[in-house]
Amino acid sequence: VNMGEQRCIIKFMARTYTLGKRAAAQSETRQRIVDAAVELHGELGPALTSMSAVAERAGVQRNTLYAHFPDERSLLLACSAASQERDPLPDAGEWRGIRAGRARLGTGLAALYAWYARNEQLAGCVLRDAEFHPPVREIVALRYGPRLAEFVSVLGEGFSGAQQAVLRVALGYFTWRSLLRESR
User: Which is nearest to 60 in space by CA: 28, 19, 24?
Assistant: First the structure.
């Protein structure tokens, strides 16, 4: 060994790094945030739910919330996806097997109205806020708009334009709510 010359041999062993527990903790934190936001959206409405309130309800710091959801839109998307996963809107495709007309319409309205009953508080707050809060309006149009169009298409098969307009009113949450209140 020549002392004037130093050699260092380092052998690196390949090691796969997996998040494991850290990934599970991140996923759990994300879910806590979404759950907290959905609860607040059902209590106050999304327009009145601040990111600070969501962080507080979820038990996380605001910077943690923003690490998972950098803006209100991303949080609204996650909340709407989680809500639809927990209790999806009825599948209008299932109604196609029923002869078009009164039976199909009754089945579809009953299914949608049952969904409204199960989701009354959250749906009421979200749809109310969609009237005046652009981010909520965008998410409602994205998540609910195509489904409503499908309901009109399937349930209103053979209907005139005026009949389809009446059908759109009948399919509305606020129509359901007024019918429910009037029947009490």
Answer: 28
